Amino acid sequence: IHPLYAEMGTTVFERMSALARELGAVNLGQGFPDGPAPPPLLKAAQDALVERSNQYPPSGGLPELRAAIADFYTAQQGLDLEPADVVVTSGATEALACAIFGLVQPGDEVILFQPAYDAYAPLVRRAGGTPVSVPLKAPGFQYEATAIEAAVTPRTRLLVLNDPLNPSGTVASAEELGTIARICMAHDLVAICDEVWEQVRFDGQRHRSLMDMQGMAERCVKIGSAGKIFGLTGWKIGWMVARGDLAVALGRVHQFLTFTTPVPLQWAVAAGLGMTDVLDELHAAWAASRQRLGKGLEGAGFAVLPNAATWFLCIDLAASGIELDDRTFSERAVREGGVATVPVSALFEGEGAPTHLVRVCFTKPDAVVDEAVARLANWR
Ligand code: PMP
Ligand code: GLN
């Protein structure tokens, strides 16, 4: 086995979900909504299973889905895309693997802002690259030109931007996107924009993609996930969007990773991207749970950081008068308090990790939210 995997642990998400199952804890750790899936989407998947071909679709994705994704981004984000700019993958995770394996060569450096989704660094290392950490500071997690510039060397090949940011739920401002774009252009960097949380915003703003910044359309690989848009994380339909030749090249990486992804679900997602009512309803339900968990936690004496996006709130332990560090809190909360959470420092590499923040997922039915709050209030 490659030494990278021999030395690796299990992801914090998998570990927390396993602990929650084993201990009967309420699981606010791994990010997923529980509760029923939207019936029109299930119907679309069922119809596709029964009425359409169940054989390999084209490797790049069903033409109908590639067109639906291009249209969706044109309508939602004003991007000027062709269906050929889209490659459908098995979740955003596969898109990340394709982009990183396709773009990173041995010796390349890749800027990873911290906190970073836990797949990035291992993929970069497996590609022979070196992750270079740029820590973002709580509570704002802002992007600062001087810190980014200081991390760039002649070996820097790309940066990975996760916006909106998991786990903080913060969003880059237009000015910060402009800074990142300027640095990419000045140093000839490609940006992988992991924008899986683009549709899960609560600040009344539309997502602005780095790809939409001047000069960036040709140097971005934008990654999305139906898992987040529809709250169906087990469907594992994702995609990457890049211009022309780059999309063709990344499609070649995809053809020898998974080749394709389950076709009935591709049909369902293609239909779902046009279901405005379904999307609005989901969003309203998530906004209500966010409110409910935030209010509940505050009522129980927990301080919660402002959040503009994602399914996550961060509890500020220090501001809540809790002296435990995040890992100790998470470990004890699941074992003694009966609630699984994610310590934010688990998503940090290098210096500068905050140890006073734990992430909780709020996209749960009211009874689950209330039970989690009651348990935490009782235990703290
Ligand atoms: N990137 C980020 C930032 C995520 O939060 C997630 C899932 N939580 C993924 C990628 C993976 O998405 P998928 O399940 O579509 O592979
Ligand atoms: N991305 C999800 C989260 O942040 C987890 C995905 C996974 O478990 N790999 O919770």
From TrEMBL:
Its cofactor is pyridoxal 5'-phosphate. Pfam families: Aminotran_1_2. The keyword Transferase applies. Gene3D superfamilies: Aspartate Aminotransferase, domain 1, Type I PLP-dependent aspartate aminotransferase-like (Major domain). One of its GO terms (molecular function) is transaminase activity. Keywords: Aminotransferase, Pyridoxal phosphate, Transferase. Residues 26-376 form the Aminotransferase class I/classII large domain. CDD domains: AAT_like. This is Aspartate/methionine/tyrosine aminotransferase. It comes from Novosphingobium panipatense.
